[in-house]
What does this fold into?
Amino acid sequence: MMMWNDSFSVSNDEIDNQHKQLIEIIEELAIVIHNKDYSYANIIEIIGRLEDYIKVHFEYEENLMLKYSYPNIEHHTKEHNELRYKMQNMSVFDYNKPDIFYSETLTYLFDWLTKHIMQVDKQLGKYVLELSK
Ligand SMILES: [Fe+2]
It folds into this structure.
């Protein structure tokens, strides 16, 4: 399981805190899936919270990029849009193969977030830090 650690820091406290919140919600989902607790109420509640928080978090970063005229805004936003699209098209009603569906969803979320934080968000954090020095 992916617990937040210092190697995830993007040198921006607000973004780091938001990432911690996101990881916490994904970990809640991981626990429910690990326990095979596929009850509609649990899954829908957690995924709903995840969607809401992703929206808040992406908007925060995108506003920051606009504010600082970040040169890589297009690529960064494109990556955000990939996850937005994935979330919109996720069907939590897929009860035919819940094991596969939920474990694939979880793997996708962990992989996406890890790669995005390590590669794309770190660049943004560094850029903003340099400008605020
Ligand atoms: Fe981002």
